[in-house]
Design a protein that fits this description.
With about 450 residues, this protein is of the alpha+beta class. Helices cover about 45% and strands about 20% of the residues. The chain starts with a strand and ends in an 11-residue tail after the last helix. It is an enzyme of class 5 (isomerase).
């Protein structure tokens, strides 16, 4: 095998590889001899098929397999021998001339191809001891816990039948059939449906028209589906619901006690308060983590400036911009609605993509030097979490990750990033600062430097 570097510009490398026809022939002969004892061809005894006949029958397909093996193995081995690391999967360039390909497959011509890739940049890690960050901490007040407990307890509130007209807060039990242009539509029919008036869980205007209704009443409720309604066939359409009110019930006085907690599946009111506090603290803890991480990454960003692999930056930019466009589409907005232009947005998100790639490389290098590892158990847990997001498709999703190393790498990357951040937080100066809930939850003006 002959290897020659033809391009070395910045991080870009192009390597020309030539596999002599004699080497291809040697590999083919090895394959033929291995297959000779196993070949089963009509008219020949097992193990007695002449090599010439075997070559005539299988030579071309075997050479194609040899070529594919060379293309799969050579880029990795060549780059490793050069003590380099490719930023992304190398690109292979071969001749598209059919005649030349036939000569190679026939063992009559050398096999030539080029390997194009960008190296991961080399840079020196800097001391992190001087980095200081403030960890914003919110002290959860008892009132907030109690308010949340009351909201949760509403789910366990009991209702008592009433013969009076329905009021806000009352629970009505309904049968209904929804129609558009006089025709019933899918999903618009229900029986014994409970609805708490004022909860705003139904289409706007539906609940208001049931105020004053009594058990046994039949009403025609006219509504208009919102323009952004999830079902496109109903969005913006006028509809009529033929409603039968089967019962009206008034909420009983809500008393916070152990019985309410038990109806919620928790052994006592005190335990309910503890669970609620833990949930609130967990929510604030996530926000605190993001604030601390942002400060840390901002500090690192100031310390590093080096050439980046263009393809890696482009791939990151494409991911970011596709997400931005999808979010705008889902919200029915344009760049102009966000007081910008697509061109300006592209410039801004390209800067973000470069920052993400640069910081990703820095964190990766730090993690490698620190010996940060992701265990098999952690990867399995991440995979199972991903699979559970697609109920009914678990097997297909699991097989997808089994067959796609790049997809598995996409699960590993955020886990590794968080573990490196955890390690860094033990090496820098972190001080706690008590803040209000509003200060903690205030969104940063710029998006987080790395995807979490």
């Amino acid at each position: 095998m002959q290897v020659k570097e033809t391009t070395a510009e910045g991080l870009k490398r192009v390597i020309e590889v030539v596999i002599p026809a004699s080497d291809l022939e040697a590999r083919l002969q090895t394959r033929l001899h291995e297959a000779k004892d196993q070949a089963r061809l009509k008219g020949f005894r097992p193990g007695k098929v002449p090599l010439a006949h075997l070559r005539k029958t299988y030579g071309r397909s075997m050479m194609a397999e040899i070529i594919n093996q060379i293309l799969n193995e050579t880029p990795r081995s060549v780059i490793a021998e050069r003590n380099e690391r490719s930023a992304m999967r190398p690109e292979i360039e071969m001749s598209e001339d059919a005649g030349e390909a036939e000569k190679v497959l026939g063992g009559k011509e050398d096999f030539r191809f080029k390997i194009s890739y960008e190296m991961l940049p080399a840079f020196d890690l800097k001391d992190t001891a001087g980095i200081k960050v403030e960890r914003p901490v919110v002290e959860v007040p008892e009132e907030e816990v109690e308010d949340q407990v009351k909201r949760i307890a509403e789910n366990a509130r009991s209702y008592e039948p009433t013969e009076e007209g329905a009021q806000d807060g009352d629970r009505v039990t309904l049968d209904f059939v929804g129609k558009v242009d006089g025709e019933a539509f899918d999903g618009g029919t229900a029986a014994d449906q409970n609805l708490v008036l004022g909860s705003k869980t139904f289409i706007p205007g539906f609940e208001d028209q049931l105020l004053g209704a009594k058990a046994g009443d039949e009403k025609a409720v006219d509504v208009t589906f919102p323009a952004d309604y999830g079902a496109e066939n109903l969005a913006g359409k006028d509809a009529t619901f033929d409603v039968t009110v089967k019962a009206v019930a008034r909420p009983a006085e809500l008393e916070l006690d152990d019985e309410v907690a038990k109806r919620l599946g928790i052994e006592s009111l005190e335990r309910l308060r503890t669970v609620v506090r833990e949930q609130i603290e967990s929510q604030y803890g996530l926000a605190t983590r993001q604030k601390v991480k942002r400060q840390l990454l901002d500090a690192l960003d100031k310390d590093y400036d080096f050439e980046l692999p263009e393809r890696l930056v482009q791939a990151e930019f494409d991911n970011i911009f596709a997400q931005v466009q999808q979010e705008l589409k889902s919200a029915g907005k344009s760049f102009e609605d966000e007081e910008t232009t697509e061109e300006k947005a592209r410039e801004e998100y390209l800067v973000l993509a470069k920052r993400r790639v640069r910081l990703g490389l820095v964190l990766s290098e730090m993690g490698e030097k620190a010996g940060v590892q992701i265990s098999d158990e952690e990867m399995q847990r991440a995979l199972f979490d991903q699979v559970r997001r697609f109920p009914g498709q678990e097997q297909q999703i699991y097989e997808y990750y089994q067959k796609n190393p790049e997809a598995v790498a996409s699960l590993r990357a955020p886990l590794y990033e968080e573990k490196v951040v955890d390690w860094l937080l033990t090496k820098i100066d972190v001080t706690d600062k008590t803040v209000t809930k509003e200060e903690l939850m205030k969104e940063d003006e710029e998006p987080l430097a790395l995807a979490s």
